Amino acid sequence: MVVRDAGAEPVRIGVVGAGRIGTSHARLLAERVPPAELVAVADPRPGAAVALAGPLGARALTDPAQLLAADDVDAVVITASTEAHADLVEAAAAAGKAVFCEKPAGLSLADVDRGIAATDRAGVPFQVGFNRRFDRGFAAARAAVDAGLVGTPQLMRSVTRDPGLANPTAVPPWTVFRLTLIHDVDTLLWLNPGAEPVSVYAVADALVAPDFKDTGLLDTAVVVIRFDNGAIATAEASFSAAYGYDVRGEVFGSAGMVTTGDAARSSLVRYDAAGRHADTVRSDVELFADAYTAELAEFCAAVREGRAPAVTGHDARRALAVALACIESVRTGLPVAPATGPTPAAPR
Question: Rounded to two decimals, what is the model's pTM?
Fold first, then answer.
């Protein structure tokens, strides 16, 4: 938790997008991030901004352009629909606002490049929301890797299992890679510092909601990534974890191993005649509440200090390059080398 500097003015923040993650971020900014002041929420859907902003003491706007033009907004947190991310990052930078954007920062490498270029031109911080880096367990795993406690990484693993699909028709194509496994990809890249991915092989299917496979929904996937330092990593995702929201990571190396992640709500385990029982969390905003808080606090610190944040647009670009390679691998059935240059368009 960040302690407020009594001599510093708060970072005045506007949130664009009042959906599920926007609601979580707005509440954390208003209630748990001392360096932040939630000034406004913008969402074009009737009533959405009012319902979120009102109880938090912020003003509600229906046009994001109004928020970007506001003189009392120093920074913008973008939690709008994914396809709007790149344009909003560019517009926010042009307005001189520091930018925090939920992942992915665009649907193509060209989109992310636009955001990087725009924020560089404006000289404003640009942070992307890879929250696992700010989770205590994952951060401790990275510290162990940095300290050489696992030696040279050899085998790595990242897991994301979501409790379910409330509405399969609302899931855009390739979501399992662009929005879900992109977190695992970033985690694996981050936990193998200094190494670059050279080959990606992915398989995916509709095992949870097979009736929707023809619409492009893939709900189960496994990825294998080979790195130039010899490490082999796997990432898996499923939208059918009946027991709760499950996120885990592992690095096995020449000198040892670290593991992190637990779906348990607390360390309490209950035993009775039916067996052993542990309560589990049901969503990312519950499991990663502290991590979300910490990443937003880091964003505020970067804005105050006029520096690059801990997670940059370039980090977002690396993760997206691997996610796009996953999509191409599923299409071709072959290993794919992640792109290093910009791409003109995202796969559909």
Answer: 0.94
